[in-house]
Amino acid sequence: MDTSYNMRKISSYLQDLGWQVADIDLDANTGDTRLEILAGQVADLIDRTFEPHQRIDLLGFSMGGLVSRYYIQRLGGLDRVDRFITISTPHCGTIAANFSGRTGCMQMRPNSNFIADLSKDVNRLKQLNFTSLWTPFDLIILPPSSSQLGIGTELQFPVVAHPLMLADGRVLTAIHSALIQPVTSPI
After folding, report:
1. What's the rounded Cα separation, in Å, for the pair 98 and 106?
2. How far apart are CA 161 and CA 117, in angstroms?
């Protein structure tokens, strides 16, 4: 249920540092829509906003990280994205999704077909600079370690709640640090 409004602190911070930022409000981001459909919205925004061969950096929060991963791994995003940063994303699913019957939420369950499909070739993310930022105190991503994939850079922050990751100064600094890293050559 997060929107670009929730990401405003990150957007403003990056714009103040000179980065071009394009926000997206997924329709519908309530967990009712299949994540593949939301990933298609990300692909459409990228195609409308950037030149066809322009490389981009992609940042996703929570469910948005899984949606972005689907774009990268299944919709050609690997050919466009240099740096991929996720914040409190349930890469390995979240037990909290077991309490919802919404289609998108069910796809975020730990043993869902969606999670299993993305896990089959997770090593493709090694072809770009991948960073996962997470907190051990997350009560939405259960267990919180589900934000870890065992590849790329994984940074843990002692932030006391899931949504507070979007405003924590240490997280903002880590995002900037990830964005200024040299791009890794594809394997």
Report:
1. 7
2. 29
Domains in the chain (CATH in brackets) are 8-179 (3.40.50.1820)
CB 20 within 8 A of CB 94: no
CA 121, chain centre distance (Å): 17
Q: How far apart are CA 71 and CA 42, in angstroms?
A: 7
Preceding amide of 161 cis, omega within 30: no
First to last CA, the chain: 36
Mean per-residue pLDDT, 107-116? 97
What value, to the nearest 5°, has the Cα angle with vertex 58 and ends 57 and 62?
A: 155
Please determine, for residue 143, whether its predicted confidence score (pLDDT) is greater than 80. yes
Burial class (CB in 10 A: 0-12, 13-18, 19+), 78: middle
* Nearest alpha carbon to residue 61 among 88, 34, 43: 88
| Three-state SS at 73 | helix
Structure token digits, residue 165: 């990751």
